Amino acid sequence: MSAAERVVAPDATALAGVVADALVSAMAAAQAARGAAALVLTGGGIGTATLRALAERAESVDWSTVQLWWGDERYLPTGDPERNETGAREALIDALPIDPAQVHPVPGPDASTSVEEAAAYYARELADAGSGGLPVIDVVLLGVGPDAHIASLFPGHPALADDALAVPVHDSPKPPPTRVSLSRRSITAAREVWLLAAGAEKADAVLLAAGTEDPRVAPAGSVTGRERTVWFLDSAAAQRLPA
Ligand SMILES: O=C(O)[C@H](O)[C@@H](O)[C@H](O)[C@H](O)COP(=O)(O)O
Question: Which pathway does this chain act in (predicted)?
Fold first, then answer.
């Protein structure tokens, strides 16, 4: 449990650069402390812009000991343009000197028989790479939706009650309807949780999440990192927060 910090950048482009700079430092700090770094990626607009900004700084990172995971995935075949993996590969991973074994996509319908099986596989992979049954993650990046969702954990959705490390999600209000998501249990096991929001259309969600820890109301307000929780906002997304 950690009290949330707030970083506000003037606009989305500046925000992506600020988060990318912070990621370069956080990965170096994790590598200095424990010889490795594990980063959980997010889909979405500001999440993908951040990965592009990180690609511009790729030479500042030692990728040989970085593990890349996803906070959620749309249950679509490998290579589908709507998959978060596809966006992350185009924005960042394809340009990196990284061993494919260090990149951990969520299986799609081409690599699993059901979304339940895909989630169970991902949960096992996270546990196997973790310690004491919980994943070892240095930073989880989470884009925040206009309804204060994070990953594929939506307000009031039954998947919120599933305690597995990765959970199947049906009937997502954001298309596509079938997804796999890290659970709150996995997310809150991370050393640092970073929530990203840009644009005026996120201002209500940011205000809502700042005022409640109830995951049924605002999943984004209900997650904290063990050591650090940071809200990275642009000024439009932060506009309704008290100064
Ligand atoms: O699969 C997805 O769509 C995401 O992982 C989702 O959780 C996203 O990060 C938020 O909806 C914010 O997305 P935007 O930044 O595009 O609004």
Answer: Carbohydrate degradation; pentose phosphate pathway; D-ribulose 5-phosphate from D-glucose 6-phosphate (oxidative stage): step 2/3
Whether the predicted model's global pTM rises above the 0.95 cut: yes
Could you tell me which residues come within 8 angstroms of residue 100 by beta carbon, excluding any fewer than 6 positions away? Answer: none
Structure tokens at 127: 């546990």
CB 130 within 8 A of CB 34: no
Report yes or no for ipTM above 0.95.
Answer: yes
The Cα–Cα gap between 166 and 123 comes to 5
Give Dmax (Cα) for the chain.
49
Write the residue with the smallest CA distance to atom 8 of ligand 1: 44
Q: Which tens digit of pLDDT belongs to each residue from 180-223?
A: 999 999 999 999 999 999 999 999 999 999 999 999 999 999 99
pLDDT score for 2: 57
Residue from 212, 88, 205, 220 nearest 142 by CA: 220
Mean pLDDT of the chain: 97
Q: What is the CATH number of the domain that holds 112?
A: 3.40.50.1360
Contact criterion met (CB below 8 Å) for 45 and 228: no
Report helix, strand or coil for 162: coil
In the chain, how many domains are there? 1
The number of the ligand 1 atom at minimal distance from the alpha carbon of 142 is 9
Tell me, rounded to whole angstroms, the distance of Cα 15 from its chain centroid.
16
CA of 14 relative to ligand 1 center, distance in Å: 19
